[in-house]
Design goal:
This protein has 324 residues and is an all-alpha fold. Helix content is 66%, strand content 1%. It is rod-shaped and about 110 Å long.
Length: 324
């Protein structure tokens, strides 16, 4: 180059691995401006053009548009700031793509109708505030329901309202800002489930039975019931292979009904046994357990222990006792 430290477009292309056309395009856009021209009018570039073009190539590979790259270079914006802004933009795009993929994956798995796909898409795109409104309406119907507000004669005291609020919070999904595909799918299914009138009725009935079983200061508050006792007693019996219809199941039934009678403040008799069976029939609805599992996925909680096997065993044992 006869001692000339300036580079031609062809030399820049060779050093950077770009085409001559690409280098000329970047130069025309002002991203890599020439420092001068030859007597014949050919553009010449300084040594720093190589580093600039390599950076442009890298940023383009990462998805930055040329307008952003040019503005950053013209303003001498720090590369870290460019990277941070682009990373945030990509995060938004990824969230949108995750939602779309979750809807399509769910639709394909269920062989959904166009109407169902539209519903799933709308549920997936709800804002945080809209999600909370939807779930709060569901939980209000389940735990408060019609005829329990002020002026109805069933007002709740501060302690009861606090306990109710705690239960409702424990059943409230909080979709993360950066949900995975699995979490988005879980939210869609959970939201659909919360709008199912049949499921709402089951959950409402469960809450009413829980409330009716509470006594004293905790009256009207859904809370821990005989399910824990059932798990403690039925799990070992079931694991031991005891037939729920056999006489060996009797002590398990006796232990649970005694605990339930104490909880309710009622005598441990045939009426209480029937009451407990009615309660367990609502608790053991598979949709309830599904809701809890989906809730754990959305909230990134450990998965709940399955109740159905032990509850099913105990319900069979209790039913056998009632009809004996």
């Amino acid at each position: 180059m006869n001692g000339d430290t300036h580079l031609s477009i062809g030399e820049l292309a060779r050093r950077t691995g770009l085409t001559v056309k690409a280098v000329r395009s970047y130069s025309d856009r002002g991203i890599v401006p020439p420092v001068g021209r030859t007597p014949a009018g050919y553009r010449r570039y300084g040594p720093d053009a190589v580093a600039r073009l390599r950076l442009v190539r890298t940023l383009r590979t990462l998805g930055l548009d040329l307008h952003t790259i040019r503005e950053a270079m013209e303003r001498d914006t720090p590369l870290a700031e460019i990277a941070a802004a682009h990373a945030e933009a990509l995060a938004v795009q990824i969230r949108v793509l995750n939602v779309r993929r979750a809807v399509l994956t769910t639709a394909a798995r269920r062989e959904s109708t166009p109407e169902e796909i539209d519903l799933m898409h709308r549920l997936a795109r709800l804002s945080e505030e809209e999600r909370q409104v939807l779930i709060r309406a569901f939980l209000d119907e389940v735990f408060i329901g019609p005829g329990t507000g002020a002026g109805t004669g069933t007002e709740r005291g501060p302690g009861t309202r606090t306990a109710l609020a705690g239960v409702m919070r424990s059943l409230t999904p909080q979709l993360p800002d950066d949900p995975t595909e699995e979490e988005t799918e879980a939210w869609i299914e959970l939201a659909e489930l919360s709008q199912d009138p049949g499921f709402r009725a089951v959950m409402r009935r469960t809450a009413e039975l829980h409330a009716a079983d509470r006594t004293g200061r905790t009256a009207g508050v859904p809370g821990p019931g005989p399910e824990v006792v059932i798990l403690d007693h039925a799990a070992p019996a079931r694991a031991a292979g005891i037939d729920p219809h056999s006489a060996q199941a009797g002590p398990v039934v006796d232990a649970v009904t005694a605990a339930y009678a104490q909880l309710c403040g009622r005598p441990d008799d045939a009426a209480l046994q029937q009451r407990l069976l009615t309660r367990l029939d609502t608790v053991d609805d598979p949709r309830r357990e599904r809701y809890l599992r989906l809730l754990a996925v959305v909230n990134r909680w450990p998965g709940p222990e399955p109740l159905s096997p032990e509850l099913g065993w105990f319900r069979a044992a209790l039913r056998a006792r009632i009809h004996a």
